[in-house]
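hiii so my PI (J.) wants the whole complex modelled not just the main chain, which honestly fair. so below is everything: four entries, each one labled with what it is. i double checked the lines twice but i was tired so who knows lol
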Amino acid sequence: MSSSSPPVRNGRRPSVKDVAERAQVSLGTVSNVLNRPDRVSAGTRERVERAMVDLGFVLNESARQLRMGRSNTFAYVMLDATNPFFTDVARGIELAAEKADLSLFLCNSDGRSAREHAHLAHLQQQRVDGILITPVDPEAPELARIIAQGTPLVIVDRATTTGTFCSVTVDDRLGGRVAIEHLVDRGHTRVAYVGGPVAIGQVRERWEGARAAWSDAGLAESDLVHVETETLSVEEGRVAGERIAGLPRRSRPSAVFCANDLVALGLLQQVVSTGQKVPEDLAIVGYDDIAFAASAAVPLTSVRQPRQSLGRTAAELLIDEVNNPEHLHQQVEFTPELIARTSTLG
Amino acid sequence: MSSSSPPVRNGRRPSVKDVAERAQVSLGTVSNVLNRPDRVSAGTRERVERAMVDLGFVLNESARQLRMGRSNTFAYVMLDATNPFFTDVARGIELAAEKADLSLFLCNSDGRSAREHAHLAHLQQQRVDGILITPVDPEAPELARIIAQGTPLVIVDRATTTGTFCSVTVDDRLGGRVAIEHLVDRGHTRVAYVGGPVAIGQVRERWEGARAAWSDAGLAESDLVHVETETLSVEEGRVAGERIAGLPRRSRPSAVFCANDLVALGLLQQVVSTGQKVPEDLAIVGYDDIAFAASAAVPLTSVRQPRQSLGRTAAELLIDEVNNPEHLHQQVEFTPELIARTSTLG
DNA sequence: CGTCGTGGTTGAAAGGTTTCACGTCGCGAG
DNA sequence: CTCGCGACGTGAAACCTTTCAACCACGACG
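here's the output for the full assembly
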């Protein structure tokens, strides 16, 4: 049989055994070629390697993993793969993983608990070495269970009350605060906070930070209203824009703080398309400072988060947790920063 | 030992064997509970299930896969996970996969062959049931090899000359054509095409379509210039903007057609920030019609591609290839559509 | 001329699951 | 009472890899 023989014969894929047979060596030797090439003489090594390419041999990772007990793979379960914020976080993770010679699988829960659950179960069964996740609900007992069952897990961009995880977050309360302080500085006395659902910790904490800053400024609680949205999407931003436009003149806010940039961009788009001026008629602050915020209809003031560092740090914590027996869980918190642009400066 | 015993004892994770032992049944019965619950009496089933939760049993997917030979998993190797175009494609795939009860892993090659290669090797070793990929280089022999070695693979959004794959594409030549026809209609007689590197088939075909339309309109070849970029990113769009601004007045184009929206948005941003008017001073056409195109500084005219359908169709082809023994490779081609907005209409 | 490394290779065991041919038990029919 | 049958349950084999103790040949050394 020459090297032109079909790589896949009779449906079964070639295994080390087949390679061994063809190279006239024992099975252990093939494994040595694969894992400790220095221990095998040049001649045999070459013969074995030759046999591998002739047969189109592909190592069976399941079998290796079964034997070895680890997979050299991390996974990041993203909350929303279409939100640039999370893809930037993912990129940070990817780079850190690559440096540590780990494969990274991305999974998208799309904000749905059911899909998240399915992905988590699958990853656990796959015995990935560790999981990074931005969970739909950080309090879900499932997360603690996964750790208890032996798969390290770190929470990305979500606060956790208990100390059972490593987590990497950005101070959302502070983020809400700086956004509102900025608007107050610009003289606004009636402001809407747009975002939801409040079940999302993010949304809640930014709101709390906003309210705290508002009352610290001595303004009336009733002049900071919460316009709640179903999700944090561009579409919902548009809808919110319409709702705000529909408010009676005297109760209409002069500025809006959005729980993220997608909402802000949707809202901005709706506002501009109806001929209103930003920021003259309505000032807008977003959150995340995604790349598209700067190139929006009106460049968007936004609260920047260190997206890539968030991902990198999370991955590093996970790597430590996996390798270091005396690892201690840490909660790392980054600080957000207001980037002021035309949408509030005029 | 009560149900409060620690789930992970002595470092080893519980296996079906442990479950069997605790439930006082044989190992085969546990497997039956897992896979054919109807074949086991209610009493034993309950006992086994109880033992599983007590022990915190998690099925070892590697072992199952090793035995079964298939994994019920697809993977999509994305070219650029930060480009909203690809995340929308991924979403289409995700939804189709979910409907077919498959898990989906996303991998990001980040446009780098090396990383793509690493991901592919890993996926092949993992024995995923099928791979979807938007490759860095669709001609790479590696892709054909993967198929030959038994892993079905479909190419997403890249043309392939040979008929060895299923592929799903959008007619890029036509896309380039409609973009240029639109600009010609609007009276432009000097236009730049911004994008690169030409090694990317996409970039090349849109350029070819553009040139064909240009000469069909009877315009001089030298009046359609190609401004080449390193990559298709926002940053490169900005750079291109500067280069165009630096051109001597008489050779400066009155309109620009960008190879994708990221480039277009970067360029738009640069142009607007230097006080030029779009489209009066420079008209801009993008490509992809990502969600952010509509909310850009000046709403962007763009060539829309059916992103989600692209993904869904690709996944469906792959599912067919996996399940249907008489599957035939197909090349599905979608048709792009020009969405005219302010950036060319004024 | 035995003995002792030593570099190179071997073969069996282990790892967790599924499958399948085969027992066992109880019960109704003959 | 026996036979046969259905419902349940069993245990061994197979999937593919890695590891490790043992083995072999052979040159060096005493």
